[in-house]
Amino acid sequence: MNATSCNTAVLAQQRLQPDICRLTVAWAPSAGGHIPHAGQFFMLRAWPADQPPLLARPISVHDFDPATGALTFLYQIKGQGTTQLAALQPGDTLSLTGPCGNGFDAAALAAEVAGDALPPRKIAVVGGGIGVAPLLLLCRELAAAGVKPDLFAGYRDTPYALESFVGCCNQIYLATDSGVAGYHGLITGVLHPAQYARVLTCGPMVMMRGVYALCAEQNTPCLASLEGKMACGLGACLGCTCHTKIGPKTVCKEGPVFDAGEVFAE
Amino acid sequence: MNATSCNTAVLAQQRLQPDICRLTVAWAPSAGGHIPHAGQFFMLRAWPADQPPLLARPISVHDFDPATGALTFLYQIKGQGTTQLAALQPGDTLSLTGPCGNGFDAAALAAEVAGDALPPRKIAVVGGGIGVAPLLLLCRELAAAGVKPDLFAGYRDTPYALESFVGCCNQIYLATDSGVAGYHGLITGVLHPAQYARVLTCGPMVMMRGVYALCAEQNTPCLASLEGKMACGLGACLGCTCHTKIGPKTVCKEGPVFDAGEVFAE
Amino acid sequence: MSDLRVPFLGLEMAGPVVAASGTFGFGPEYQDIEDLRLLGGISGKGLTLAGQPGNRGERLLETPAGLMNSIGLQNPGVQHFIDHELPAMRALGTTVWANLGGHSIEDYCTGAAMLSGTAVDIIELNISCPNVKQGGLAYGVRAADAAEVVEKVRAVSTKPLVVKLSPQAESIADICKAVEGAGADAISLCNTFQACAVDIEKRRPVFDNIFAGLSGPAVRPIALRMVWQAVGAVNIPVVGLGGITTGADALQFIMAGATAVQVGTANFIDPTACVRITKEIAQWMDAHGVANLAEVRGCAR
Amino acid sequence: MSDLRVPFLGLEMAGPVVAASGTFGFGPEYQDIEDLRLLGGISGKGLTLAGQPGNRGERLLETPAGLMNSIGLQNPGVQHFIDHELPAMRALGTTVWANLGGHSIEDYCTGAAMLSGTAVDIIELNISCPNVKQGGLAYGVRAADAAEVVEKVRAVSTKPLVVKLSPQAESIADICKAVEGAGADAISLCNTFQACAVDIEKRRPVFDNIFAGLSGPAVRPIALRMVWQAVGAVNIPVVGLGGITTGADALQFIMAGATAVQVGTANFIDPTACVRITKEIAQWMDAHGVANLAEVRGCAR
Ligand SMILES: Cc1cc2nc3c(=O)[nH]c(=O)nc-3n(C[C@H](O)[C@H](O)[C@H](O)COP(=O)(O)OP(=O)(O)OC[C@H]3O[C@@H](n4cnc5c(N)ncnc54)[C@H](O)[C@@H]3O)c2cc1C
Ligand SMILES: Cc1cc2nc3c(=O)[nH]c(=O)nc-3n(C[C@H](O)[C@H](O)[C@H](O)COP(=O)(O)OP(=O)(O)OC[C@H]3O[C@@H](n4cnc5c(N)ncnc54)[C@H](O)[C@@H]3O)c2cc1C
Ligand SMILES: Cc1cc2nc3c(=O)[nH]c(=O)nc-3n(C[C@H](O)[C@H](O)[C@H](O)COP(=O)(O)O)c2cc1C
Ligand SMILES: Cc1cc2nc3c(=O)[nH]c(=O)nc-3n(C[C@H](O)[C@H](O)[C@H](O)COP(=O)(O)O)c2cc1C
Ligand code: FES
Ligand code: FES
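A: This is the predicted complex of the input protein with FE2/S2 (inorganic) cluster.
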């Protein structure tokens, strides 16, 4: 409940691949905005109230620089909303509501892992496709908290945005469906949860289910960041509810990060 | 019923005043399009089907060059539709339906006037504000038919688009509400219908009523080009009906040019 | 190649898309704009027995994704239609639907009897115009009233009878069953939604009649619900309409069980809409290996 | 400076804009986003006696200028609300409306009695949720059914009772008169419009319940018509809603006679909508020399 809403300016827009963009906007905690953390997201709207789509679009925080207030999103062009986001130019304004949701508590995770009685005192961060978007700030925050994670990133084809991860990760494992780079196959082919104290994941549901299944075999705790259609992003409409083992939960407010066992276990 | 509909390319867009634009598009009679005549109009749409406004916008033919197929509109930015027209750049496409309506039959008018037994064998063309838009092609067609008309043009403030009229008019009388140019006052202050065989007018309703009143006093036949909210522009929806002395008439198909007496007489 | 033909009340329509009444004149208006032979049919402007000049004041208003109209059944009258508009309409190469409104049951019956002696293919009985005090909506609210007018018209009409229903009906299912029982050959729905707009600067309603009819994409999800209910209620064909602007929209109605669709307001968004939608349906069928719409009609139920 | 206060059922609301049920949580969700003290009130998420998890499957779908939802009254139950959500809601500095749905007349009565013993300001009786088999819509179609539930709830409730009506009512005027007669203190309308969407690729309805509720700008002209009819039918205050997104929209409802308005879907288009709309109303009043909304309420009639 610390989301605020305002109009803000586009600082930069970059096209990484035909359908992948990186958008940086100004987000000033000084003006009442709260500092966004890993796994949180914003509701973005860059089109007039009377133009489609009706709803704002949820996009995860990819990166945030508290010093400059530069807030970066990494997103894939899917339909009407993201197409209009991609048309934004520096100087244009858009409306932002956030930071929304319960992200990853990197400090707590790092402390838990560091305090474990036995090794592995390591964290794996596993992303699939555009699911890598929220993982950059996660890796940064984990590294800052003392546990540089290993990144596992799976792509369909040519990878993107990986260079940013170099400084804040221990190892980077890459897999592609097409075999164009890294391991030829699914990222779950190179992930060994037994070697990690925690696995944190974001990506397509089918991938996250696969990651969770591996983790469950090894009893490795796994957190997953979910998606869902959202109207408010604030826990107010109950449009994004997912039915978990512990009852109905709003992805936007009680998530998007959940204990994978609570959402994926049969 | 010779309107056709197609997408076409913007050739030029010019801003004459902060709210006045001139747009030239390609209209190829060779590809089945009919040659537009004075007083006819097109339904223009430059925004996707799912974006507001719902309806296309009627804009009169300002000029047409049959040699090149360059079709020119002169329009005032009023709201959502014309704002989007004004954003068009050369190379953009828009959808056009037309030519719509019964315009001025310049050839017949010129022939009638020339055949009059007595003088005055002259035609006055009277425009107010953006109502001058359809008058350029009218003057050109009258001139080509042998009767160069006198133009009476009234503006609120700084006039626009007048230079185009120079070659095809006999005299140009100018009036402005602000007094910035020409006669200081209403254009009806300088119009003397007794000196003309026909008065042809387009502009705000209040101006056209004034012109008609002057003409009626002198028994000078007067034709007026009306406006109306339009959905189809084709005579199909009956949304633009005006109630005339000779019954309900569609402005879009039976007009927009009417015998002023039929619409303005009490 | 997909086969778009739709058998309908003993006729064969060339495609599933019929131009909706009041949005397409009597057809010739669109003749130079699109190939009307690809249409399933054209429903002409709503007729009344004696004709009428329609409403005064504002007639059109754009709303979010919708259009309000208060035309008020301006029309030349049944006899004028038969003498002057029908011949040209008949020549367009598609089925001719005469849309008939009325001020009284007698008017409806006289008009229907007159049309029965002509070359029209179908009489579409409009008991749902919200824009005139006596535009038929009086008969479109209660099932019993609808049944009465349909039964009487049925008795004097030799043409296939499509009854066009109103979204203001008390119960869609009940009124559908009632008009089926009274002899309707098919049902079309829905007509425009009774709506209101206030001009806040003038501090009065935009329309002289206070209420006007809302159509267009805005109402599509409600219209589809009503079509779903109608298909579930009766065994006669249902023609679905309300806000259809794309082939995908039309397929929603067909998968809900509609035999054919009508396209109204979309003609104003894109004057080639009827043919474009027909082609989009054909493309979808080709891409999905659907040879005939019968394969998917009602498949979502 | 214009005075935005609205006297309502013995309360004084700070402004004419109330956040609509189901779109605003219980209020705290918007606390950091806008100054909630400027609102007339907040209607909380619809409650049922025992609470329920809501619907499975898709819950949201965007439509042209509209939103379909099939939340299915997910809520924590009346007692949980009283114990856990109400205190925070009460602290927001605006009037608290408890929106109450029900599965049976007994449920409605028990819930209303429980809420009567609390700090809520108003009970908004929701007899109009289209999204659950027993969401109250059963009571929102026929005037006699509505009157029955309102009368019974009235008897056990000591709070002001606003009855929220459905656009699916057989007759707006009749149902309004019936609930007025049964003791309603005010009427709010309308709830969402029953609508349908088909996923043409999956060839089945988008929503597990087949039908879902349509809201947003698309429905505004129809909602305004119903509010116009309601105001004409009764002498109790009418709270108007449906698609209001701007101050000008709200003024249309007020000029049609609404005492106050509610804003729902617009909160999703712009999370500051309630306060923005309030300010736009104030600006219009200032620009037009209107000191109090009473000067223009119903002026378009
Ligand atoms: C909490 C959260 C965080 C997110 N973070 C990011 C991010 O950092 N980067 C990013 O690129 N995307 C992210 N997404 C997904 C993003 O919100 C959707 O891709 C976007 O809303 C699509 O909008 P659109 O209008 O472009 O496409 P639409 O026209 O709405 O949809 C186009 C196609 O994409 C599908 N689609 C729509 N929404 C989603 C969704 N939520 N998930 C999967 N498929 C969808 C539709 O079914 C449709 O087939 C996030 C979603 C959530 C809920
Ligand atoms: C046959 C015909 C020919 C026309 N030719 C020209 C032309 O050559 N050049 C030109 O600039 N305009 C012309 N117009 C007017 C033009 O169509 C409107 O100005 C335009 O539709 C406004 O659309 P919008 O979306 O920009 O404004 P909207 O948002 O629709 O309206 C903005 C404001 O303008 C007013 N308005 C809207 N439509 C009209 C109208 N038809 N007449 C007067 N006021 C209106 C509205 O009431 C509102 O106050 C013509 C109209 C007709 C019917
Ligand atoms: C301008 C206009 C005029 C209409 N006139 C008639 C009519 O005369 N008879 C009739 O049955 N329906 C009439 N309708 C209703 C349409 O035929 C159709 O039922 C309605 O618009 C819903 O479909 P749509 O959303 O595709 O337009 C009219 C609609 C519009 C917009
Ligand atoms: C997501 C959502 C949930 C809703 N839940 C409720 C509810 O629990 N109780 C209720 O009375 N109305 C509920 N409504 C209806 C709204 O309160 C309102 O009546 C309707 O949306 C029309 O107003 P609008 O167009 O401003 O949204 C809900 C609407 C939406 C969009
Ligand atoms: S998006 Fe509204 S509750 Fe999650
Ligand atoms: S705009 Fe449709 S008849 Fe004139």
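The first helix of chain A runs from residue 80 to 86. Chain A touches chain D at residues 1-5, 43, 45, 49-50, 52-56, 95, 97, 229-232, 234-241, 243, 247-248, 253 (CB under 8 Å).
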